[in-house]
Amino acid sequence: MLRKIAILCTLIGAILASCDKEIVRPVEWTGGNFEWPNGATKSIYRSSGRFIPKNAIATRAQIYKDDVIVALPRYKAGVPATLAKLSLKHKGCEASLTPFPCWSTQEEGNCNALQSVVDIFADANEVLWVLDVGVVNTLETPIRRCPPKVVAISLRTGKVVKTLDLSGLVAQASRLQYIAVEYAPDGRPYAYVSDAATRSILVFDVAGNRGYRVVLPKAVVGNGKRDVLYIALIQKGCGNNFILFSYLSSPKVFTIRTDYLRAGCTSGKIVDSGSKDGKIIILGTDLGTAVFFRYEGKPEVYRWDANLPLAPGLPVLVYKSKKCYLSTHAIPDLKRERMRILESNFPDFIQNTVGCGASQRVTLMGGCVNPKNPLPVHT
After folding, report:
1. Which terminus has fewer CB within 10 Å in the chain: N or C?
2. What is the pLDDT of the chain when averaged over all its residues?
3. pTM here?
């Protein structure tokens, strides 16, 4: 018996070592823990009100090699950088934020720079697509600094490779919230952006430098309101990709093939993909058909296989945030074939009760598994 146990332990150890030889731990930080060029620059930003550490919070993220790229929307004044990165291999107790790609791209009021990044999407060609709404201080006194845009940045070089001007596609009431990007069969990239206020998905042909608005049927709102319009790219590997979408207050989840969106055709093309048994926050996907979500105000994260219609009892519990934390993004870590979660005490941030700053962390959702397989519960 002891010999069998020893052999089993050896096998388990070998499997874990083959998955990832690095020690993987949560990446944690508080508020706007930025790495500054020097003390003088930090002092200037502080004295001018451009740096108020407790006003920074990361809400969306992507992982590239050993870095986590995070979006820090300028919800409040004093956020010196709205896009930053931190290392999965950081030393010490807290990770530090470094503006991405650099400090000069973060200047508030400069329309060639980033104003307020609300979502990011990393594609298979190592390009980061950045949704910049152009409005700052949205939780205080909103200020329109610049027109909305999508900025494409090479993750390899940090260079801006393309800027998509969305000003011709939005209305005064528009609220742009989420972005997804895919490459069509002919290799042309297309960006999809949700506009909750106008019940629309913006479609942008990057190579053709043109975009258009696809208005969704009234039925997608149901009896709810136009609050948050979640979108996620579903890749089933059958030749067609899908955009999954749902309003927070809608009782339904819908999908539409992306080739229909690219053609600007929605009539009769939208599929009812199931009913929700509560308000759900769609957190992300595994780049395949696994969709991760949680219920509003709840710490449990569920995995749903979008090959099947959403129904009560079908999703699998895969993670539970620790006390006072709520997740805002589920992120594939392709290098290690794992899923990670970005979480924080976001409700405290909204209520201005974070003290020195919001507690934020990126942590593993489960064990060392392929993200396309079911994940064990991990807290």
Report:
1. N
2. 90
3. 0.91
> What token pair was written down for 50?
């451009």
Q: Is the pLDDT of residue 20 over 70?
A: no
- Above 70 in pLDDT, residue 22? no
Q: How confident is the model at residue 93 (pLDDT cuts 50, 70, 90)?
A: confident
Residue 62, pLDDT > 70, answer yes
Answer yes or no: are the C-beta atoms of 130 and 191 closer than 8 Å: no
Tokens representing residue 364 in the block? 């593993």
Note the Cα 215 to chain centre separation in Å.
23
Amino acid at 341: I
Is residue 306 over pLDDT 70? Answer: yes
What are the Cα distances from residue 77, in Å, to 26, 32, 233, 263, 305? 28, 12, 32, 40, 40
Question: Residue 275 CB: number of other CB atoms within 10 A?
Answer: 13
Amino acid identity, residue 363?
A: T
Assess whether pLDDT exceeds 80 at residue 16.
no
Query: How many residues belong to the chain?
Result: 379
**One-letter-per-residue 3-state SS of the chain:** CHHHHHHHHHHHHHHHHHHCCCCCCCEEEECCCECCCCHHHHHHHHHCCCCCHHHCCCCEEEEECCEEEEECCCCCCCCCCCEEEEECCCCCCCCCEEECCCHHHHCCCCCCCCCCEEEEEECCCCEEEEEECCEECCCCCCEECCCCEEEEEECCCCCEEEEEECHHHCCCCCCEEEEEEEECCCCCEEEEEEECCCCEEEEEECCCCEEEEEECCHHHCCCCCCCCEEEEEEECCCCCEEEEEEECCCCEEEEEEHHHHHCCCCCCCCEEEEECCCCEEEEEECCCCEEEEEECCCCEEEEEECCCCECCCCCEEEEECCCCCEEEEEEEECCCCEEEEEEECHHHHHCCCCCCCCEEEEEECCCCCCCCCCCCCEC
List, for residues 316-332, the tens digit of each pLDDT value: 999 999 999 999 999 99
